[in-house]
């Protein structure tokens, strides 16, 4: 068995979209690598797991739970260590995009914005804290954050989402400055991937964004310019298994720059 492939990877938000594509890439391309799938939607998660061949099921572990629940975090770490004996990488993919809107609207939902930050940012902070205080202090680990182009530029109505991803970029930089090389991390924007989130943006938010901003997403879909999740997911899977190159540790990059 190759030492390169003898890895255990945790992927959050793994039941659908980019997270599911990342898991499939790892299981397909690294035949001795284990994957832990974490997601809130039990039906989708179990359906995905049950669709896998037996040999891939034996290298997989599913954890049903909300990433903002401390019990999910503890369960994920403990059950991963109990089943596979180690944790080499974590891909933080779970996230939501709502609320979409503007701060000059009287009904802008600050409580939903706080929930978004709990999912997109604070759940990651807590997971890393629990992880780094559980595993041996000299065990190197790769942390891979799914960021967004919205973290570095304004997209109309996307204050909450963009701000949370900018916070993730800063978390990545801070961890690198403080903990490299025991912790290696990278924040990667996946581009506009053909997922259910994109469908939601097209169908639900026309009245929450400017016409110009919303039409961009309509046209990307109409012109078949949305990215294939399996193509993008391969980048995340490769870095999780093969490791993050030192020259990009702590950096925010686009998926096609790697």
Automatic annotation (TrEMBL):
Q: Which domain of life is it from?
A: Eukaryota
Gene Ontology molecular function, alphabetical: oxidoreductase activity, acting on NAD(P)H, oxygen as acceptor; oxidoreductase activity, acting on the CH-OH group of donors, NAD or NADP as acceptor
Could you tell me the keywords of this UniProt record?
Oxidoreductase
Q: Which InterPro entries match?
A: NAD(P)-bd_dom_sf, SDR_fam
| Family annotation (Pfam families) | adh_short
In the UniProt record, does the keyword Oxidoreductase occur?
A: yes
Please report which protein family the annotation says this sequence is part of. Belongs to the short-chain dehydrogenases/reductases (SDR) family.
Identify this protein by name: NAD(P)-binding protein
């Amino acid at each position: 068995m190759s030492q390169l492939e003898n890895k255990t990877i945790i992927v959050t938000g793994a039941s659908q979209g980019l997270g599911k594509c990342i898991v499939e890439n790892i299981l397909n391309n690294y035949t001795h690598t284990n994957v832990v799938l974490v997601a809130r939607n039990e039906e989708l998660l179990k359906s995905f797991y049950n669709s896998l061949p037996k040999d891939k099921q034996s290298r997989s572990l599913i954890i049903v739970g909300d990433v903002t629940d401390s019990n999910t975090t503890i369960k994920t770490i403990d059950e991963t260590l109990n089943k596979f004996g180690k944790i080499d990488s974590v891909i933080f993919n779970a996230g939501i995009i709502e609320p979409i809107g503007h701060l000059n609207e009287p009904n802008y939902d600050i409580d939903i914005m706080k929930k978004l930050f709990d999912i997109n940012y604070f759940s990651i902070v807590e997971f890393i804290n629990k992880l780094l205080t559980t595993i041996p202090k000299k065990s190197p680990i790769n942390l891979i954050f799914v960021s967004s182009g919205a973290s570095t530029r304004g997209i109309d109505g996307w204050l909450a989402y963009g701000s949370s991803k900018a916070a993730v970029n800063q978390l990545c930089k801070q961890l690198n400055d403080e903990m490299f090389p025991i912790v290696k991390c990278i924040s990667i924007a996946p581009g506009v991937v053909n997922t259910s989130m994109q469908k939601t943006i097209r169908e639900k938010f026309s009245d929450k964004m400017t016409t110009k901003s919303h039409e961009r997403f309509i046209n990307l879909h109409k012109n078949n310019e949305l990215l294939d999740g399996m193509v993008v997911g391969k980048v995340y899977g490769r870095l999780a298994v093969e490791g993050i190159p030192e020259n990009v540790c702590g950096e925010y990059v686009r998926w096609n720059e790697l």
